[in-house]
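note to self: dont lose this again. the chain is below, predicted strucutre after it. 145 aa total, dont forget to put it in the shared folder this time
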Amino acid sequence: MNSMNDAAAVAAAAAGRLRGLAVTGFVATLAAMLATTLAAALAQAAGVDFEVPDGGETIPLPGFAVVTGFFSIVGVVIAVALLRWSARPAQRFLWTAVSLTAISLVPPLVAGADTATTVTLLGLHLVPAAVMIPTLTRSLRTRTE
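---
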């Protein structure tokens, strides 16, 4: 009977760690969305047009929030999965997130936009990474110690 209580306590602790990481990730996602959209608005006010020749469309400000939110949530899901199934979740998350961030820098370089838009888009890829990666890595470290 004691081993069942121990198993239940371990399961409850694991669920609490996962839930805590998810909450931290959600708050960080909101912060990343806000920071990225604010940075895009400032760049737009400074004259960056965000026009991408592939289709001739201009990226709207809400688009930055949506894309940032989507990929930030993907990062949270990766972090939760690593916490659940990895022996070293913080290190694996850090390497995965940095690698995916580096890959995300390719589309702005090949989109054919003007220099100001390209440089700004590169910077706007790094803004949410600067919010999400340290926050989730730190959260993973504290939950596995």
